[in-house]
Amino acid sequence: MSSVIASTRFSVLDRSRTREGHDGPQALRDTVRLARQAEALGFHRFWVSEHHGVPGVAGSAPTVLAAAVAAATSTIRVGTGGVMLPNHQPLVVAEQFGVLESLFPGRIDMGLGRSVGFTDGVRRALGRDKDDAEDFAGQLAELLRWFEGTHPQVHARPAEGLRVPPFVLATGKGAGIAAAAGLPLVIGDLRGRERLLRSVEGYRDAFRPSPWAAEPYVVVAGTVAVADGEEEARRLLVPEAWAMAYSRTHGTFPPLAPAGRIEARTMTAKEREFYESGLRGHIHGTEEQVADALETVIKESGADEVLVTTSTYDRAGLVDSFRRLARLAGLTSADVPAAA
After folding, report:
1. What was the pLDDT predicted at 312?
2. Parallel, antiparallel, or unpaired: how do β-strands 305-308 and 218-222 relate?
3. Which of 67, 121, 244, 259 could form a disulfide linkage to 235, CB 3.0–4.6 angstroms apart?
């Protein structure tokens, strides 16, 4: 095993994607089950995400889902990848994470993003607009003050005085905001390698130590699929690639479909273009191929941690991919039951 990979933490982000024939509640239960499997395999963190009004994604309330995950596990760190801060009042976010940290001390992470609702209808329902994302730095500073107890009149209970590690999910200028605030950075995706490396370099150069982090910490996020062969690993990527292509051409994000049925489809030229694009640039292949690719990414970026997010219709194949990833990374390789 590569010493570079062996010295790097590996974690999991699950977006609670729905599959054809399975409803949203099943997707949420699958997320909790995957968290238990990730813990048994030795992954460092398990994070959940926030999406509103997306037909193919069940994860709309990340702190609620994180509570279910933390209750179902015992050692793995649990958090959000992330809570979209412009959608919420910082006080409420502080209170939610304060409750989580109080119930599961020493295991909670606070991953924070700057996206706002994807459509006008969702933004109206949330009481937000596009401009709310522009004050992310101010919202972030306010959130951290609730934990520090520096607001003069109101106190965030039970968050005040607790240490919940904050992470900034970088989109656009997010890396600069993380550096200025002195916070760990989560950045993806692996397909835009040159842009990613520029952002990481800029983050490290501009980083200012803070009470939350004394030095830069970089988490590189992306899709990784591992299987017996390269083609098998590629097929794990097919359902998500098609869902993205369909959303780009039809305006709605569908549940994940079986790879074989997608490959048998007659696609329009535009669908095929987006579909092929969605398959490119991810890390996939055999354990040896994936280990080589990961070593290159880690060396180039100097990443302290790799956050893996993989969505596919085949749940057994998904768990097997994480099992193989854990093995090549030298994590604890418990005998984890396959997903149904």
Report:
1. 96
2. parallel
3. 259
Dihedral sign (CA 28, 217, 77, 93) = negative
**β strands within the chain, DSSP E:** 9-14, 45-48, 77-80, 83-84, 108-113, 166-169, 185-187, 218-222, 224-226, 283-285, 305-308
Position 35 scores a pLDDT of 98
Strands (E), 85-197: 108-113, 166-169, 185-187
Q: Is 140 exposed, middle or buried (0-12, 13-18, 19+ CB in 10 A)?
A: buried
Residue 123: per-residue pLDDT: 59
Q: State how far the Cα of 251 lies from the Cα of 253, in Å rounded to an integer.
A: 7
3-223+304-328 is a CATH 3.40.190.10 domain: no
Give the mean pLDDT of 282-296.
Answer: 95
How many Å apart are CA 90 and CA 78, to the nearest integer? 20
Tokens describing residue 229: 């062969």
The predicted model scores a pTM of 0.92
